[in-house]
């Protein structure tokens, strides 16, 4: 054929061991995914077959394989009709992108139906001349976990306003290290993870939004200015004995849960925690509260020293042996 027409004839090659395990129609996918599977294969067949006869024969076999995977015949026929062999030159030509001096705006939206509604609103009045049409990215889809597990408590607008006002009225704290992150007032406080097997949250976690030194001369009240959970890392934490009120300031790059589990298993060996082995004391008297954090791990120990000094937790007033 090549010698007669100077054209190279090709057709789709199928491996003999190909099992054609297309996505089964009974799987939990949206219908557009199944249409994309069919249309993508049809376009590939248009590109790889130079004659309509071989293309049509390939489609017949493709339709049989789809029907075996429980694809509805009307869906298959409708999708087949959307791909025309007469448009083969268009499918073989690489699409040229319009020149653009600016990258397209990126919108991160919630999954449908919110995603579709917001996308329609934005595109309806979109008149950008220097930008490409905006790109819409769906955030993580809700899972079965989100449906069965109660989510963390979200503060209402009034509670956020009260928290912000309380911060404005709070006593001024000493200047903290410069590497500390900015004040975040949106979700301040400590949240319980509500996992039934989490000993840290169930027994030891203090979820108060404020804390102060147990040293009588230090009456300053400090406020939690970050969002913490038992899984928070790179934190400074405050341990308080509910029996004798003595306190210990520590820091960790690991999660708070991991750190407290280590303290529980080493309660006899760790000097600053031996107070929980005294008479009338037990491990349930240990209450922990994450109080500060920094993204710079190198500054974590400086932050720990700052809070040891601010809360007066050095021996004999507290449980810290040294800075």
From TrEMBL:
Pfam families referenced in this protein's UniProt entry, alphabetically: GIY-YIG, HTH_animal
Gene3D superfamilies referenced in this protein's UniProt entry, alphabetically: GIY-YIG endonuclease (3.40.1440.10)
Residues covered by the GIY-YIG domain: 235-310
Domain (Helix-turn-helix): residue spans on this chain: 21-80
PANTHER family with a match to the protein in the record: REVERSE TRANSCRIPTASE, REVERSE TRANSCRIPTASE DOMAIN-CONTAINING PROTEIN
Protein name: GIY-YIG domain-containing protein
Source organism: Geodia barretti
């Amino acid at each position: 054929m090549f010698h007669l027409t100077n054209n190279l004839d090709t057709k789709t090659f199928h491996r003999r061991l190909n099992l054609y395990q297309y996505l089964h129609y009974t799987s939990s996918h949206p219908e557009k995914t199944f249409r994309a599977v069919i249309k993508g294969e049809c376009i590939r067949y248009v590109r790889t077959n130079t004659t309509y006869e071989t293309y049509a024969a390939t489609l017949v076999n493709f339709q049989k394989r789809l029907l075996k995977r429980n694809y509805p015949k009307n869906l298959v026929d409708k999708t087949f009709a959307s791909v025309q062999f007469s448009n083969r030159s268009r499918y073989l030509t690489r699409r040229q992108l319009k020149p653009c001096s600016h990258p397209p705006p990126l919108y991160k939206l919630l999954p449908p139906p919110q995603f579709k509604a917001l996308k329609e609103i934005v595109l309806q009045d979109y008149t950008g001349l220097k930008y490409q049409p905006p790109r819409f990215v769906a955030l993580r889809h809700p899972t079965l976990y989100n449906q069965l597990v109660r989510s963390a408590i979200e503060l209402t607008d009034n509670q956020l306003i009260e928290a912000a006002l309380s911060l404005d009225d709070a006593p001024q704290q000493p200047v903290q290290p410069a590497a500390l992150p900015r004040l975040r007032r949106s979700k301040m406080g400590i949240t319980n993870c509500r996992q039934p097997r989490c000993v840290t949250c169930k027994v030891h976690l203090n979820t108060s939004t404020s804390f102060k030194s147990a040293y009588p001369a230090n009456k300053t009240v400090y406020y939690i200015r970050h969002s913490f959970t038992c899984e928070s890392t790179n934190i400074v934490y405050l341990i308080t004995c509910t029996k004798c009120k003595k306190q210990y300031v520590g820091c960790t790059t690991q999660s708070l849960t991991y750190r407290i589990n280590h303290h529980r298993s080493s309660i006899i060996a760790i000097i600053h925690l031996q107070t929980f082995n005294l008479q009338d004391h037990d491990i349930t008297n240990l209450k922990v509260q994450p109080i500060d954090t920094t993204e710079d791990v190198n500054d974590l120990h400086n932050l720990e020293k700052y809070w040891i000094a601010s809360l007066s937790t050095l021996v004999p007033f507290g449980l810290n042996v040294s800075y």
